[in-house]
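Fig. S4 source data, part A: sequence.
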Amino acid sequence: MCQLLGLSSSSPIRLTFNWESFIGRGSKKAGNPDGWGVAYFEGSDALLLREPEPAITSPMVQFLTRHAPRSNLVVSHVRRATCGGVNLANTQPFQRVLGGHTHIFAHNGFVAPYKQADTSSWLQPQGDTDSEKLFCHLLSDLEPLWSEGGVPSLEKRLGVVERFAREAMQHGAVNFLYSDGDTLFAHGHRRTIPGEGVSKEPGLYVSLYQSTTGSDMNASCEGIEAEGSCSYQAVIATLPLNDRNWMPLKAGEIACFQHGQRIK
C-alpha cells in the first residue's frame, strides 16, 4: 500500500528522512519498494526529489537525513506499483506549474479510467499511472481560476477540489495530498490493500500540534527530526507515525491547512 506524508508548519523547519516509521515503509518488506519522492515548498516554488528505487536503501534519502532544506510545506510519497511501470515518470509526487505557482500532487489508491474533459496540451501525463491522470484532471479544472491572475480565493479553490474528489470517488479509492504552495489540501477516502481492494479503514490521519516552548518537531511527532522552532504543526499520513493523537479523515472529507493550522 502506497504511503502519503504531508507537513504544514507555521515556520520553515528541517524535516529529515531519518525516521523509521515512514521511510521504513518504503521497502520491499513493507510492500512499497517501487519509488519515493518528496517536495519541499519555498513560497510559490518547490524542490522536488524522487527516485524509482526503494527509499530505505537510497543514498539520496540518507543525504536528506542530514541536509534536507527547511520548508513550511512538505509532501512525500513512497510507492507500491499497482498501475504503470517502475520508472521516474511514474514516481510521485507529481509536479506542474500553473498561474506562476508550482502545484504538487500525491495519491494513494486506484481509480479506474473514466471519461474526463479534454485537457490542455501542457497537462498531458508523462507517465501511465492513474494518479498522474487524476492530477492532470484536477489542474484542468483549476486552470480557469488561476488564469485570472493572483492566488484564487480558498473558497473557489476548495470548491473545485471538492467537485473533483466527489467525481473521482465514484471510480475508485482516492486518498490524496495536493498543494499550490499556499494551501495543503488532504482528501481522505478508504485504505487500499493490494490484492484485496478497498477496505473500510480510513485512508488518511491528521495530527495537530501547538508548541508552547519553541521546541522542534520531535516534541510533536516522535521519530521525525527537525531543526528550527515552530508554533504550529500539522502532519498528515496514511497511517499514524507514533502513539500520539491522530484523527482519521472521514471518507470524502477534505482538510485544508495553512501555516500549520487546519483552516477548513
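Fig. S4 source data, part B ends here. The CA atoms of residues 125 and 245 lie 38 Å apart.
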